[in-house]
C-alpha cells in the first residue's frame, strides 16, 4: 500500500524556510554551534581527531552508552541510534507489523505514528483525544478498542500537538492494557523530560518488556538539524531493524555521533535553558489566550511546547493561516494537518521576543477577521 502524504510536512515545506515569525514548530529554540560548544565544552581537538570511518549499524558505542546511561539504566543492548526518531519509527513499524495487524493509535497524532502502520496494511483503530474533554485520554474508550488481536498500541505523551500528558498511574494502566493482550506498546517520548505540572514519566521500556520508546534531540534539546534520534527496544527487535537499515541509511555519520554523544552527556545543561524559556513562553501564551478569549479556546499544555488552539467561527482554517503567513509573515500550522479543521497548532518553544510579535500579529488578524465576518452578517 502506498504511504499517505504527510500533510504537516507539505505545509511546512512551503513556508518553514520562508517565514518571518514561526509560531508553528513543535520544538524549542535551536542552538548554534558556538552556543553548543560553549555549553557542553566541545573542543576543536575532538573534531580534529575524528576519523571518517563507517559507524556500526546500531550506532557508535559512545553514543549508545550516553543514551543508555541517561535514560536506560546503562543497558546498551536495547539501544539503537538513528537518523532522527523518524527513522527509528519507520524501522520498528516495518520490523514488527504486517498486513492485517490490529493497531491502536492516538488521534490527533504525528503522521509517522499512523501512516507507516497504515501503509503496511494494518487495521487502524483510533483512540480519540477530544477537545470537549480537555483532550484528557479516555481509558475506558481505550479498553473498548483493545482485543486479543491487538498487535501494537502507539502513543506519544507528552502529546504533540495538544500538550496533554498522563500520570504515572495512567502510564501503568497503559502498560497493563498492553501486557494483558501481549501487545507492543510504542511510545514516542520526544518531550519526556520537558514537563510543567508534574515530574517526567519513567522511561517506559524499563517497565515492560514489549515496550518500545522513541527519543530525539530535535524537540526538547534544540538540535533538530543534527538529525539524531534513538529507540529502546528488545534486542531481537533491533536485530530486525538492522536488516531493514541495511537498505536505507546503514548508519549515522561519526561527526554527528560525536556531537550527539557530547550533547547527551550534557543534556541537563541544554534542557534547563530551554525549559525555563518554555515556562516563560507558556505563561505569555496563557495571558494572550485570556486576552483573546472571545476568539480562542485552549487546553493549557502539560508538556512539550505546542498548544492545539481552537478558533471560534473561522470557517476555513487553511485560508486563515495562508493569510497570516502572507502578508503578515507569521507561520501557524492549520489543524487540517491533523484532521482537525477548527484548530491550529501553535508552537511556543522558540524565541520569546518572536513569540510576542507573532501573537500580536495573530491578535490583529483575528480582530480584523471577526470584524469583517460581523459586517458580512449585517
From TrEMBL:
Keyword Lyase belongs to the record: yes
Keywords assigned: Lyase, Pyridoxal phosphate
Enzyme class: lyase
PROSITE patterns: AA_TRANSFER_CLASS_2
GO-annotated molecular function: lyase activity
Cofactor: pyridoxal 5'-phosphate
Domain Aminotransferase class I/classII large: 58-362
Its EC number(s): 4.2.1.145
One Pfam family named in its UniProt record: Aminotran_1_2
Family stated for the protein in its record: Belongs to the class-II pyridoxal-phosphate-dependent aminotransferase family.
UniProt-listed PANTHER family: AMINOTRANSFERASE FUNCTION, HYPOTHETICAL (EUROFUNG)
Protein name, per record: Capreomycidine synthase
Native organism: Nostoc flagelliforme FACHB-838
Amino acid at each position: 500500500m502506498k504511504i499517505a502524504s504527510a500533510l504537516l510536512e507539505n505545509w511546512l515545506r512551503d513556508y518553514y524556510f520562508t517565514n518571518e515569525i514561526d509560531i508553528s514548530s513543535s520544538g524549542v529554540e535551536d542552538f548554534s554551534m558556538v552556543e553548543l560548544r560553549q555549553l557542553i565544552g566541545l573542543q576543536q581537538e575532538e573534531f580534529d581527531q575524528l576519523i571518517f570511518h563507517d559507524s556500526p549499524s546500531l550506532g557508535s558505542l559512545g553514543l549508545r552508552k550516553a543514551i543508555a546511561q541517561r535514560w536506560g539504566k546503562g543497558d546498551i543492548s536495547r539501544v539503537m541510534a538513528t537518523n532522527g526518531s523518524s527513522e527509528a519509527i519507520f524501522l520498528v513499524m516495518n520490523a514488527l507489523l504486517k498486513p492485517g495487524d490490529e493497531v491502536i493509535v492516538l488521534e490527533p497524532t504525528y503522521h509517522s505514528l499512523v501512516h507507516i502502520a497504515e501503509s503496511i496494511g494494518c487495521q487502524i483503530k483510533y483512540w480519540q483525544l477530544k477537545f470537549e474533554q480537555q483532550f484528557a485520554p479516555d481509558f475506558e474508550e481505550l479498553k473498548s478498542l483493545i482485543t486479543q488481536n491487538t498487535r501494537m498500541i502507539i502513543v506519544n505523551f507528552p502529546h504533540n500537538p495538544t500538550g496533554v500528558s498522563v500520570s504515572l498511574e495512567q502510564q501503568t494502566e497503559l502498560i497493563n492494557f498492553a501486557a494483558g493482550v501481549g501487545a507492543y506498546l510504542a511510545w514516542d517520548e520526544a518531550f519526556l523530560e520537558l514537563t510543567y505540572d508534574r515530574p517526567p514519566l519513567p522511561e517506559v521500556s524499563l517497565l515492560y518488556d514489549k515496550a518500545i520508546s522513541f527519543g530525539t534531540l530535535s524537540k526538547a534539546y534544540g538540535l533538530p538539524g543534527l538529525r539524531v534520534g534513538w529507540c529502546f527496544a528488545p534486542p531481537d527487535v533491533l536485530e530486525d531493524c538492522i536488516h531493514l537499515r541495511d537498505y536505507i541509511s546503514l548508519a549515522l555519520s561519526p561527526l554527528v555521533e560525536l556531537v550527539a554523544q557530547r550533547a547527551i552527556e550534557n543534556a541537563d545543561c541544554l534542557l534547563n535553558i530551554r525549559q525555563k524559556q518554555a515556562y516563560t513562553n507558556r505563561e505569555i501564551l496563557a495571558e494572550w489566550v485570556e486576552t483573546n478569549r472571545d476568539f480562542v479556546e485552549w487546553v493549557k499544555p502539560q508538556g512539550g511546547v505546542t498548544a492545539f488552539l481552537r478558533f471560534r467561527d473561522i470557517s476555513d482554517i487553511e485560508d486563515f493561516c495562508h493569510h497570516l503567513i502572507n502578508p503578515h509573515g507569521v507561520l501557524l500550522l492549520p489543524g487540517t494537518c491533523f484532521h482537525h479543521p477548527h484548530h491550529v497548532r501553535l508552537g511556543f518553544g522558540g524565541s520569546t521576543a518572536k513569540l510576542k510579535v507573532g501573537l500580536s500579529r495573530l491578535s490583529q488578524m483575528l480582530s480584523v477577521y471577526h470584524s469583517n465576518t460581523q459586517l458580512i452578517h449585517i
